[in-house]
Each structure stands twice: as C-alpha cells, then as structure tokens.
Amino acid sequence: MPHYQRNIKFVLFLVLPILGFLLGWSLSQKNSVQNPTIPVIIKDAGNLDQAILEPQVRLSKRNIKPRDVDLSLFWETWNAMDENFLYQDKIKVQKQIYGAIKGLISSLEDPYTVFMTPEETKKFEESISGEFEGIGAEIGIRDGQLVVVSPLKGSPAELAGVRSGDKIFKIDDTVTQGMSIEEAITRIRGPKGGKVVLSVLREESKNPIDITIVRDNIVVKSLEWEMKGDIAVLRISQFGTDLVSEFQEAVSQILLQTPRGIIVDVRNDGGGLLDACVRIASEFLDQKVVVRTKGRQFGDSGDIMSGRDGAFKELPLIVLVNEGSASASEIFAGAVQDNARGLVFGETTFGKGSVQNVIPLSDGSSLKVTIAEWLTPGGRSISEKGINPDETIEMTTEDVGTDNDPVMKRALDLVGTDSMKSMLMEKGGKSTEGEEK
C-alpha cells in the first residue's frame, strides 16, 4: 500500500472520532435549549418583592479565565483608605469586598445584572418558592426609576392602594434615586406585622403619595378559574413553581364543563419561571415555537418549543394583558399572538425581555447576569417595547376583576364567534379550528 494512503487512513482514524464527538456535543447543547428541564428565571422587577427575573435557574458555570487587568489602582485606593480612614472600627473587609464586586457589576448599567450576597441570595430563592413575608408587589426599573410592575391580587400592597405603574420615589425616608432592585427589595421586605411607607409618583398627582403598608405572609396562589356561562376564564397571577400542578389539576375539571372558548387573564402577572410558561403554553400550542433566545454564547440562542397533545389546543383563545404583564406573561402572550393561535386584548405590556442566569458562587453569594434576550416566535424583541395587543382597550387598575372590566367584557362577547375567526384569518394565520387561510 502506498505510503500516502497509509497516512490518510491514519489521519481519518484520528479525526473522525473527534468530529463525531463534537457533533454529538453540539446537538446535545441545542437540545438543552429547545427542551429545557430546569426553570429559568424570567421576571422583570422583583418576584414578589424580589429581583426579577426570569425562568429555570441555570447553575452551570462558564470556565472563563480572568483577563489581563491592571488592578494596581484598586489596591492603591484600598491601601490609602485603610491607612487614612478615621473610623477604623467601620472597616469590614468582607463588606468591602462585596461592595467592590457590586461596584464592578453596577458599571454595566444593566438593572437585571446584579451581585447578591449570601443573605440576598437566600431571599431571592425564597421569593420564587411561593410563600414569603413582605407586601406582595413586583417591582422593576424603567428609565432608571424604580416602578411597581404589579401588586399581587389581595396582597397588602394592593389593599393599601399601590397600583401598576407607580414610581417609587422613597422607601420610608430613603430616596430611591440610583437604588438597585435588590436593595429596594431588602428595604421593602420584612417580618409580618412591620410597616413600610412607599412614597410614589403618579401621572395624575403632582406631589408624591405616601402609602403605608403592613407586611404580611404572602402566599401566592398562581391560578384561579371559573366558568362565565360556557366560557372558561383562567387568571394566572404568576408563573411560579406551583402553577403547573395547579393548572393540570384544573384541566380535567374545565374540560368536564365543555367550554365553548377560553380566556387567559395575565394582567398584573409580573412573570415567573420560563419552564412553567412553556408548559402552560403547551396546553394551547401544538409543537410551536414559544419563544426565541438571542445570546452571546453558544447555547444561549435557539428556539424553545411547546409540547404536543395540549388539552386546550382546539378551543378559541383570548389572552388579556396590561402594563403589569411582564416577562413570562409577555412570552405567553407573544407566543399566542405570533402563532395566530388566539387574540390578545388590553394594553401594551411592561417590556421585560432579557434572560438572566443565576450563577452560585463559592461563599453562598451569587451572580444574576443577563445572558440573552427574549424574542417572540416572529422575531420581535420584548425588551422595553412589550407586546402590543391585537385590540387596545384602556381601563383603570381598579376595574380588573370587577363587573366594570371592559377588557373582560369584550373578550367574553367575542371569544369563539365568527367575528373572532375573521380577525384571526386577517392576521394571516390559522383559525382556532385549524383552518388554513
């Protein structure tokens, strides 16, 4: 056998196994994006007084070598402070280290990328468990200002008069200018029975409004449903850890009622877990794209698909949204809208469309870092723009859930009618019965 042929065979013997390994690894990474098994945190604001977020918490770490950075100025400043600061008893090394890290992260000017101390990390984990002590409100940052995304239904915040869109000017006596979501959450939350005063700004009021709120145990009931005639109405307060089991329990009961149509109300739903959002969407969509991710690293971009054999995939569907609908709520509404699966009524949503990865650190602290942004199945960015409804219906926050709710009335009148089918056909998709345009 010629010498060059032996060399070629030898090279192929070495290269082909390597190529096979790389191909298999690449496919496994892609599948991990399309079929998530861990919840990602996708809230914007704070989950019930906690930092936003967003879907399953990915705990994997990236092995990135530190860059070549000249830190001589940092140590020069540290030593100058240590040698000259008068109140030596106030120097706490661990606190200094955490402060330096927070300063590093704040330089990114991304309100959703934050460093959390061990104590803050613990509170964050509690906030997505469904029960905690606080006031029951989702908070976020818009144009550099702390803002209430939505108060939870029946929460101390809602009962005290807090509204979606309220700009938080002060927490007790502390002005919030430049305050992070995590710091705000720390100041707002506290033991049951304690009080906190929020000074809020509203468009219709020239002066700040002081609202005193008594903290309480916040137990989040993710799902409520009822029949209005032959229409099933589902209200999702957050895409939390208990939603999937609560939803599955309700499915069989709803189907026994043989509804003519279904309305999903995600108004004032500040977000939750991506995994829960995808599972709920799978009850309405048959193997469709729920959301697209666009990130910097390999594996952070891709399509996340719904499952098959959804219980409600044949029922006419209308989704209700408002400015308090954020993150997972926006993903759900965008998936329904872009797949022409149903209609979206109400007001433009909050606009929380970035993806955060929670990375645990060695001492119990953690880094929540923005790694990607959410896009609707049609490629629309959710960040800052939100989801525009198919039909805009303005209303006051007080009308939600009452007999004076114009959005609910419009949805009840339209769902399952020929007029709704015509509206869906005009969108260029399929009707609720699957007929091609």
**What is the number of helices?**
11
- Structural class given helices, strands, pairing? alpha+beta
The CATH topology of the domain at 223-353 and 373-426 = 2-enoyl-CoA Hydratase, Chain A, domain 1
Query: What overall form do the CA principal axes indicate?
Result: globular
Summed over residues and divided by their number, the pLDDT gives a mean of 81
CATH level-1 class of the domain at 223-353 and 373-426? Alpha Beta
Distance between the termini: 64 Å
Which runs of at least 5 residues are low in confidence (pLDDT < 50)? 10-16, 21-62, 429-437
Largest sheet: 6 strands, mixed
Query: What fraction strand?
Result: 15-25%
List the helices and strands and how they pair.
Blueprint: H1 3-34, E1 41-42, E2 54-55, H2 72-84, H3 93-106, E3 114-116, H4 118-127, E4 131-134, E5 137-142, E6 145-151, H5 156-160, E7 167-171, E8 174-175, H6 181-188, E9 195-201, E10 209-214, E11 216-219, E12 223-228, E13 231-236, H7 243-256, E14 261-265, H8 274-281, E15 289-295, E16 302-305, E17 317-321, H9 328-338, E18 343-346, E19 354-360, E20 366-375, E21 391-392, H10 406-414, H11 418-426
Parallel strand pairs: 13-14, 14-17, 17-18, 18-21
Antiparallel strand pairs: 1-2, 3-20, 4-11, 5-6, 7-8, 7-9, 9-10, 12-13, 15-16, 15-20, 19-20
Helix pairs in contact: 8-9
